């Protein structure tokens, strides 16, 4: 008897702050109209996806002191949108990106527990950190938090939230305690009182984490239910998967207790050639001429507005000390001089312009091909130990997922790799995650 294929977990990503959504396409819609959120969520539920994943930015990002007009420039509050979506969906999980730096445990735990009740057990929290003082200016504490402290505070925040979610359960078993009584004291939080929301349907909302550093990986192994990974290529995804899963045992956890789901893109065509041509066209829509110059300036740390995006790379070297040219965006480049040397080699070898180079070196579409080829590739990644599923990031809002659900999902369902119907009542059940125990386990970052 043949072994049944591993089940693929799927999520739909509604982008928050990025310059990859193609707003110039005639099919593009609003990123703030509720109809857009509803369309993507209903499409994902029709495809039997596990959850809808809402990204968020807490400040409009600036480049050269101005809002970059090809970027997403804001939208309504995450929890408000997810609460509205709870009323128009029945099984789809509702995941929101919410900062552990610029929120407080009692308030956020209460909001997430409320969403879990309103949705009958479908809430999820993507825990993010921020040590960006520019973003912090929007908040009372400003940019007080040192970079080195951000994961410590996040770990303490998650521990505290779990204690709050457990407090109605624990207090019910303690006749001397109040209803939902809690007390928590550590370096970051000194709070006590009574939690005002009853134990929610999942016990704890599902916790998602996206960090890739050593601290981030350890935090995920200790505290997360899902990792939102950036590793989509097969070999690097396998290495990441193996590394993070191996860390679970020292936190008393099994591999089944943590799902790894990379963010991926897709482009479909009737033939492989058509899909490849379409993928190239989309990439050049995503990377406009001004966008290419802007991206280069982030690495060069210089004003390059006088350069032609269809011309060669600047002959001047980067200024490594100028990190403030872009604000509100994570700076991944640690050694801009080394990056510039590598990019010059790539551009010279391929005779590439600035725009060609940025298209070449920035993230490409992960899965490109016919619906059958894309379905094959998705199954290969899961069966080869590269991931447990995928968070799909469409390039169009709100209809960018329609083609995948219409053409790829039926193939996966026919092969038995994707559910035909939801089996569970809660997001945790549908993901196959173990139920939450009566009391929160001790968690931390080692």
TrEMBL record:
It is an enzyme of class 1 (oxidoreductase). Its EC number is 1.14.-.-. Pfam families: Bac_luciferase (PF00296). GO terms for molecular function: monooxygenase activity. Signal peptide: none annotated. Residues 24-386 form the Luciferase-like domain. Coiled coil: none annotated. Keywords: Flavoprotein, FMN, Monooxygenase, Oxidoreductase. SUPFAM superfamilies: Bacterial luciferase-like. PANTHER family: ALKANESULFONATE MONOOXYGENASE-RELATED, C2H2 FINGER DOMAIN TRANSCRIPTION FACTOR (EUROFUNG)-RELATED. Belongs to the NtaA/SnaA/DszA monooxygenase family. This is NtaA/DmoA family FMN-dependent monooxygenase.
């Amino acid at each position: 008897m043949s072994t049944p294929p591993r089940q693929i977990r799927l999520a739909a990503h509604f982008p928050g702050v990025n310059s990859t959504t193609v707003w110039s396409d005639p099919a593009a819609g609003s990123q703030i109209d509720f109809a857009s959120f509803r369309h993507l969520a209903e499409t994902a539920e029709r495809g039997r996806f596990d959850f809808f994943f809402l990204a968020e930015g807490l400040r409009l990002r600036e480049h050269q002191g101005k809002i970059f007009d090809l970027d997403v420039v804001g939208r309504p509050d995450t929890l408000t949108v997810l609460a509205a979506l709870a009323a128009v969906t029945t099984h789809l999980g509702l995941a929101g990106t919410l900062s552990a730096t610029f929120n407080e445990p009692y308030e956020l735990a209460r909001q997430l527990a409320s969403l879990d009740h309103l949705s009958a057990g479908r809430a999820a929290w993507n825990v993010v950190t921020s040590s960006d003082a520019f973003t912090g200016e929007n908040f009372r504490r400003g940019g007080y938090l040192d970079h080195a402290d951000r994961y410590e505070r996040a770990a303490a925040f998650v521990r505290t939230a779990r204690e709050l979610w457990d407090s109605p359960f624990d207090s019910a078993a303690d006749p001397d305690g109040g209803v939902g009584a809690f007390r928590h004291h550590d370096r970051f939080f000194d709070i006590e009182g009574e939690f005002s929301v009853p134990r929610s349907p999942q016990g704890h909302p599902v916790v998602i984490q996206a960090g890739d550093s050593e601290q981030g990986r350890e935090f995920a192994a200790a505290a997360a239910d899902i990792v939102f990974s950036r590793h989509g290529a097969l070999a690097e995804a396998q290495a990441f998967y193996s590394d993070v899963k191996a860390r679970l045992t020292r936190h008393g956890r099994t591999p089944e207790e943590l799902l790894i789901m990379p963010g991926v893109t897709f482009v479909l065509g009737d033939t492989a050639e058509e899909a490849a041509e379409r993928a190239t066209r989309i990439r050049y829509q995503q990377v406009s001429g001004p966008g290419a110059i802007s991206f280069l300036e982030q690495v060069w740390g210089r004003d390059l507005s006088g350069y032609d995006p269809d011309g060669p790379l600047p002959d001047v070297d980067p200024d490594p000390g100028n990190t403030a040219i872009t604000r509100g965006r994570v700076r991944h480049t640690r050694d801009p001089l080394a990056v510039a040397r590598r990019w010059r080699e790539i551009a010279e070898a391929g005779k590439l312009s600035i725009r060609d180079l940025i298209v070449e070196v920035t993230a490409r579409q992960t899965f490109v091909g016919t619906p059958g080829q894309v379905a094959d590739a998705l199954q290969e990644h899961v069966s080869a130990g590269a991931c447990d599923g995928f968070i799909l990031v469409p390039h169009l809002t709100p209809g960018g997922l329609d083609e995948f659900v219409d053409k790829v999902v039926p193939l996966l369902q026919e092969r038995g790799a994707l559910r035909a119907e939801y089996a569970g009542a809660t997001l945790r059940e549908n993901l196959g995650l173990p139920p939450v125990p009566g009391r929160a386990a001790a968690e931390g970052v080692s």
